[in-house]
Amino acid sequence: MAPSELLRLLRTRGVRLRRSLGQHFLASCRHLERIVQLADLGSQDAVLEVGAGTGLLTARLAERAGAVVAVEVDPRLAEVLEELVGEQPHVRVLRADALQLDLAAVFPPSMRRKVVANLPYGIASPLLVRLLEEVPDLERLVVTVQEEVARRLVARPGTSDYGLLTVLVRFHADADLAFRIPPAAFVPPPRVTSAVVVLTPRPRPKDVDYELFRTLVRAAFGQRRKQLRRAWAAVVPAQRLEEAARLAGVDLRRRGETLSVEEFAAVARALAC
User: Fold this and answer.
1) Are strands 112-118 and 173-181 parallel, antiparallel or unpaired?
2) CA-to-CA distance for 147 and 193, rounded, in angstroms?
């Protein structure tokens, strides 16, 4: 569907897109096809799409996947979505706020779990973290996000883009920036460039207390410019922290933004001993 056709469809339904909900819909067939190809879908795959909007991506997912769960918070757009794909038995349209859902429960049982979505800008970061924390056995996530978020997902320690989101996501998954998408590919065009990121989840280390790991990471980036000794002072008693840092091989004079995911995990592991 060309952008002009999409706009006509929305006008006939009396739908005005709202920037406050991050409603910028990818209308470029070329980019949509590249996203679907990256997802590598088959009949045994169940796909969650958040921010399904008018269903341009949903329809393509339905052609290849065994099941599709399309989530849309805007009731006006959900009506359009249901008209387009709702009659297909393997497609389920949910009118809901994705951040309020039991994300693991929306996937049909006994199918491979994947996420493919043009994520609404305002919820992309917290939603990605929740998906990786709460949904077991995710195989792949192919998500379109603002380029700024994409840079954070693939950032290296010590760079300005490296931060809390980077570490929490990369604890669970490898991240690759697949390609960028210009504003003109969307309806309406956003003010920023977007990018598609592929996340490949891997098994969570069994010897790392994730709650402790997350506490350490949040404390380190909550006071980003402070040395770790000061940033973690309110989290761990000084003597215990010194011993754990020694075991992990981490200098407490460093700042959190210089630690790799593995080094954060090493400190958490040492503290649990």
Assistant:
1) unpaired
2) 6
**Model confidence over 140-195: pLDDT tens digits?**
999 999 999 999 999 999 999 999 999 999 999 999 999 999 999 998 888 899 99
Q: Is the pLDDT of residue 59 over 80?
A: yes
pLDDT of residue 17: 64
Closest CA to 206 of 155, 273, 269, 130: 269
**Full set of structural domains in the chain with CATH:** 3-201 (3.40.50.150), 210-271 (1.10.8.100)
Tokens of 80: 């359009």
**Residue 253, exposed/middle/buried by CB under 10 A (0-12, 13-18, 19+)?**
exposed
Calculate the dihedral angle through the C-alpha atoms of 18, 148, 50, 182, rounding to the nearest 10 degrees.
70
Torsion of CA 13, 19, 20, 22, to 10 degrees: 90
Q: What is the pLDDT of residues 203-227, one digit of tens each?
A: 988 899 999 999 999 999 998 889 9
The answer to whether 116 and 39 are in contact (CB under 8 A) is yes
Nearest-5° Cα angle at 153, 201 to 54: 80
